[in-house]
Amino acid sequence: MSNPTIWLQTLGCAKNQVDSEKVLAMAAEAGYALAGSPEDADVVMVNTCAFVEEARAESVDAILDLEGRRKPGSRSIVIGCMAQRFGSELEQALPEVDAVVGIDRYGELVGILDRLTGWQPVQIRRRPVMDILHAVGRPASGLPYAYLKVAEGCDKPCTFCAIPKIRGRQRSRRPHEIRQEAEGLVRSGVGEIVLVAQDLAAYGKDIGAPGTLADLLADLSGIEGLKALRLLYLHPREIRPRLLEEMTRNPLVASYFDLSLQHASGRLLRAMKRPGDGERHLELIARIRELDPEAALRSSFIVGFPGETEDDVEELASFLEEARLDWAGFFSYSAESGTPAAEMPDQVDREVAMERLRYLSGIQEEITAERNAGWIGRVVEVVVDQVEDGTPVGRSHRQAPEIDGVIRLDRGTPGEWLSARLVGTHGPDMDAVVV
Ligand code: SF4
Hints:
Elements: E1 5-10, H1 14-29, E2 33-34, E3 43-48, H2 53-69, E4 75-80, H3 81-93, E5 99-101, H4 109-117, H5 129-135, E6 145-149, E7 151-152, H6 163-167, E8 171-172, H7 175-187, E9 192-196, H8 213-220, E10 228-231, H9 241-249, E11 256-262, H10 266-272, H11 278-291, E12 296-303, H12 310-323, E13 327-332, H13 350-373, E14 379-388, E15 391-395, E16 407-409, E17 417-426, E18 429-434
Parallel strand pairs: 1-2, 1-3, 3-4, 4-5, 6-9, 9-10, 11-12, 12-13, 16-18
Antiparallel strand pairs: 7-8, 14-15, 14-17, 15-16, 17-18
The structure holds iron/sulfur cluster (SF4).
């Protein structure tokens, strides 16, 4: 029997992407190969997302799509947050799926694959399960950046969020383990490592080392060949002066602050069990810009949270006008069963929430364009991610992969780090010429 092949479709966040890469590396170590398409695969897998209703609908669509495309005799497995949260419901609703495997059971995945495919490679020595999950090298994606998950789970009480129920309490990985994985990524050709976790800035608190994200950054910066480190998902309550210092003083750390502020109305933030208000947010932003006037700032906001009024929306609009963030994402509130917010009175009508989201996104689009225009004429360091329709596309410290605008270059090949002069903007993107 030749090596069975796998096709894995990933949905959701960067943390899910990391899980998928580890699952594929684990399977590869067990002798499984990657299929070129779902139609060719012996096993099709979907790594699902369950964060909000839309994400769940997208996950079910993906499962049904692959069920329709997979070849006769092939097998199918559903993994990820939906499998973790709604395992038994999914098994009942989708009997055509051969296995539904939650995050807690990833250590059993190779055994499940073997059972489904009948693959028994006697020539391959298999390592203990848990060790594989945490220490496997990941397949080179060919991209010059990779995500590295430094912790799993979250201890925060945000009233709208089901993630702690899905991913459990915060479990930080040991610094040496993270460094080992980072070194493996750099050896595989990665230049930029993007650190992720549900609550990244709280890294280390659960292993008796609070505030050590800054130490981790300093340690990883010593890896030869690493060109850049970037952080995503910073909870404002966990941002300490030492971290700000490291992020603005360490030349290897992108001066890029992804602050998950969620709203500007103090009243709503209290109902969300989130810290601060517009004024406190502005103080944090001012502190960052004081340390580095060229720092890039991003945030995400929830619109339509129960009890949100037009005044709250205007308060957020004024905050955006004053904060002048480089980037922002807006999400319409989704009532998640089992979360306190889902039981709150004054649920906002979906259409009203979408109207507010369009209004606020419109304000931010203009601000983003203005922020970009302010960089025209400047020379920045750009990493080339890929070539799109013949045009090299990359990013500077101001752009995170996959969520912000990009820089279109007049020349360059993927993986190159180039100096380029910014010469124009169109929407969230910029044009640049290599100097
Ligand atoms: S910090 Fe993020 S992951 Fe944790 S509960 Fe709040 S929103 Fe959810």
